């Protein structure tokens, strides 16, 4: 039985949102297009994409924003331009940066820029980490929240100190804001306040928004125009962006409005986990609607436990899971979305109890 088969049999699903089928997604897009009289853009020129780019720019407090076909292209392009403007000086990135972990050395092999790993891989870097670098920097890339370490973020004062450091030294400060919308509830700040002081911000149009894919890059009018030209040079000039824009725009306001509820649900989950000390949680307190749950069993046993709970109790706890640093440990990411929001408190508490019981059972 496949994972998809098991999930369909479960009445209690922890991670994320209920997945729409392609038929459901395309039907909803067609209805929204009909209701809003949507026409295709042509190579990025059209009323819908223009208005949505302006909407994203305004939300983030920037002059302009431009669509890009992928976040991977978006980020290395922004940092490449920042480096080119500063005599090709290196870019400082956290060891868990998406560029290092998931982009197959594109920054290096494609000659975008040189990069330095900065800070401890298990916690956000600080202004002290930046001050310790003897080299001139072209840019600093900062992910908010930091997915690979459980959704941690710098303390607000620490974030402001990083902004001030970069501003005083003429360093381009770029945000990997793939999940920026999720940080607003944790910080208790609007997204434009979080983005203030950054020179450019990338946001995803599918991760927390539920679109088909794509990204936006926000910044000054001049910087965004240069980036758009570089997207074209790299093959990003698809004839119609409209499917990606429609998929993101049609539910965008509702997704943003739900973020505080997702964060509150994450706090409930965090408190419920206190009853099970064998399940360790990162970060120490939720900073966004995501957590890493560390288990005292191997990855193989964790997967077997997941499948057992799905088959016997109709509970699906996680999708993917990773090997832990220590032997016979593992951990998984849990993004809190509609699934947990719509699950009764007692079912969540009961599911955690069943997981903890399985973890305590000798092999």
Structural commentary:
The mean pLDDT is 97. Helix 4 (71-84) packs across helix 11. Strand 9 and strand 10 form a beta hairpin. The chain is globular and about 60 Å long. The chain is an alpha/beta fold. The longest helix is centred in the C-terminal third of the chain and has 22 residues, at 252-273. It has helices at 3-9, 22-36, 47-60, 71-84, 98-101, 106-109, 127-131, 156-169, 180-187, 191-195, 221-233, 242-249, 252-273, 299-313, 338-341, 345-360, and strands at 12-13, 64-68, 91-93, 115-117, 139-143, 172-177, 200-204, 215-219, 280-282, 290-295, 315-316, 322-323, 330-335. The chain is built from 16 helices and 13 strands. Helices cover 46% and strands 15% of the residues. The strands form three sheets. The chain has a seven-stranded mixed β-sheet, with helices on both faces. A four-stranded antiparallel β-sheet has the order 9-10-13-12, covered by helices on one side.
Total count of helical runs of at least 4 residues: 16
What's the helix-strand series?
HEHHEHEHHEHEHEHHEEHHHEEHEEEHH
- Report helical residue fraction: 40-55%
Whole-number radius of gyration? 21 Å
Q: What integer is the average pLDDT?
A: 97
Number of strands: 13
Largest beta-sheet details: 7 strands, mixed
**Distance between termini?**
23 Å
Overall geometric form: globular
β content, as a range? 5-15%
Strand order, biggest sheet? 2-8-7-6-5-3-4
Poorly predicted parts: none
Secondary structure blueprint with pairings:
Layout: H1 3-9, E1 12-13, H2 22-36, H3 47-60, E2 64-68, H4 71-84, E3 91-93, H5 98-101, H6 106-109, E4 115-117, H7 127-131, E5 139-143, H8 156-169, E6 172-177, H9 180-187, H10 191-195, E7 200-204, E8 215-219, H11 221-233, H12 242-249, H13 252-273, E9 280-282, E10 290-295, H14 299-313, E11 315-316, E12 322-323, E13 330-335, H15 338-341, H16 345-360
Parallel strand pairs: 1-11, 3-4, 3-5, 5-6, 6-7
Antiparallel strand pairs: 2-8, 7-8, 9-10, 10-13, 12-13
Helix pairs in contact: 4-11, 9-13, 14-16
């Amino acid at each position: 039985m496949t994972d998809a088969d098991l999930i369909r049999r479960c009445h209690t699903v922890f991670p994320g949102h209920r997945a729409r089928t392609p038929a459901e997604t395309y039907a909803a897009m067609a209805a929204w297009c009909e209701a809003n009289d949507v026409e295709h853009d042509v190579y990025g020129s059209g009323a819908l994409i223009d208005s949505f780019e302006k909407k994203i720019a305004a939300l983030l407090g920037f002059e302009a924003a431009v669509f890009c076909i992928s976040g991977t292209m978006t980020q290395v392009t922004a940092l490449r331009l920042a480096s080119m403007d500063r005599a090709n000086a290196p870019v400082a990135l956290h060891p868990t940066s998406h560029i290092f972990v998931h982009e197959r050395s594109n920054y290096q092999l494609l000659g975008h820029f040189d990069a330095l790993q900065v800070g401890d891989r298990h916690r956000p870097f600080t202004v002290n980490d930046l001050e310790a670098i003897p080299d001139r920097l072209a840019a600093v890339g900062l992910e908010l929240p930091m997915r690979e370490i459980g959704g941690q973020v710098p303390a607000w004062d620490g974030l402001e100190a990083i902004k001030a450091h970069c501003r005083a030294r003429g360093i381009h400060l770029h945000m990997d804001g793939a999940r920026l919308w999720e940080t607003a509830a944790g910080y208790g700040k609007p997204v434009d306040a979080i983005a203030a002081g950054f020179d450019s911000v990338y946001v995803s149009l599918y991760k927390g928004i539920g679109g088909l894919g794509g990204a936006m890059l926000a910044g000054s009018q001049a910087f965004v125009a240069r980036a758009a030209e570089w997207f074209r040079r790299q093959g990003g000039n698809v004839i119609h962006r409209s499917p990606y824009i429609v998929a993101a725009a049609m539910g965008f306001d509702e997704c943003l409005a739900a973020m505080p509820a997702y964060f509150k649900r994450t706090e409930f989950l965090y408190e419920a986990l206190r009853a099970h000390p064998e399940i360790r949680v990162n970060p120490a307190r939720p900073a966004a609607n995501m957590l890493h749950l560390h288990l005292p069993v191997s990855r193989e046993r964790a997967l077997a436990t997941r499948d057992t709970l799905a088959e016997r109790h109709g509970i699906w706890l996680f999708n993917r899971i990773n090997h832990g640093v220590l032997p016979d440990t593992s951990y998984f990411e849990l993004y809190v979305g509609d699934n947990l929001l719509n699950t009764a408190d007692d079912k969540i508490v009961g599911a955690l109890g069943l997981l903890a019981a399985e973890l305590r059972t000798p092999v």
